[in-house]
Amino acid sequence: MDHLLPIGVSDEIRRVLPELRVHAMLFDGARIGVGHGGLDPLRSRVVRRVDELAERHGDLADIPSVRAMITLLEGLGQDPRRHPPTFLQRAQAMARRDPFLVENDARDTTLMLSLYYMVPVFLLDAVALRPPLMLQPSAHGHVMPTPTGPVDSPGALVLADNEKVLRSVQHEIGRAPVMEMTQKFVIILIDPGVDGGLDPERTSQRIDNWLSALTSAELLKATVSP
Q1: Is 71 helix (H, G, I), strand (E, B) or coil?
Q2: What backbone phi and psi angles, to 5 degrees, belong to 122?
Q3: CB 201 within 8 A of CB 117
Q4: Are 46 and 121 within 8 A, CB to CB?
Q5: How far apart are CA 24 and CA 167, in angstroms?
Q6: pLDDT score at 150
Q7: Per-residue confidence at 139, pLDDT binned at 50, 70, 90?
Q8: Which of 148, 56, 37 is nearest to 95 (CA)?
Q9: Integer angstrom CA distances of residue 58 from 9, 52, 73, 85
Q10: Phi/psi at 216 (5° precision)
């Protein structure tokens, strides 16, 4: 499984946002449940953080990391007003105090990490992946399955393996999902590189702390795409 990492980044993305980095971590030995007691204080902490960011910037879309992702989408020919980043929509829902969507402890923790950093974070079942993995614009005619039906969105920012699109920054795609029986998973954080970007050591330490505490998984490998 070591060959899953690091994650590649396409030249099209590099040209628009050369500072972008992709943090990826491989975990094994997970025991994933639903409703871990440690999630409630974590959610409260992230809610406070989102509230502070909203107060500081006025609009969540004006947070520097969000603005950088929107700039990247525009550079790829996307309309972020029509198809905004899904993590921004989740942050807006949190700010409105919409009910929390409960899936499982691994997926719920991943959402908290995404909202803590205000960047896209993807979680995937490592066994279902066919490397290499690449962050890239979607090709014309590449239909993506979403809960509301198939979507053909050329230029959408996606994570793909050698066979299929796995995730999208703008659309809900659920391939290679992490379920309660999953033991080995990969978590991928897209850092737009604002103000020098996230510190790799501190970021991997927080992700490891949160996921190991809530899923009992062990970190096997951590990489940052150059």
Answers
A1: helix
A2: -115, 145
A3: no
A4: no
A5: 14
A6: 65
A7: confident
A8: 56
A9: 32, 10, 22, 18
A10: 65, 15
Give me the chain's average pLDDT, please: 93
Is the pLDDT at 131 greater than 70? The verdict is yes
* Nearest-angstrom CA–CA distance, 152 and 220: 36
pLDDT, tens digit, 9 for 90 and up, residues 155-209:
889 999 998 899 999 988 889 999 999 999 999 999 999 999 999 999 999 999 9
Q: CA-CA distances (angstroms) from residue 150 to 144, 145, 165?
A: 5, 5, 12
Q: Report the pLDDT value the prediction gives residue 222, as an integer from 0 to 100.
A: 97
Collapsed DSSP state (helix, strand, coil) of residue 167: strand
Instruction: Give the homologous superfamily in CATH for domain 2-224.
Output: Phenylalanyl-trna Synthetase, Chain B, domain 3 (3.50.40.10)
Strand partners, 9: 135
Number of residues written out for the chain: 226
Mean pLDDT of 20-37: 97
- Closest listed residue to residue 153, CA positions, set 141, 167, 169: 141
Kindly report the backbone phi and psi dihedral angles of residue 137, in degrees, each rounded to the nearest multiple of 5, phi listed first: -75, 145
Which residues lie below 8 Å from residue 41, measured CB to CB, with a gap of 6+? none
Listed in order, strand segments (DSSP E) in the chain are: 8-9, 21-28, 121-125, 134-137, 144-146, 149-151, 157-160, 165-168, 185-191, 218-224
Bridge partners of residue 165, in order along the sequence: 160
- Domain ranges for the chain, please list them: 2-224
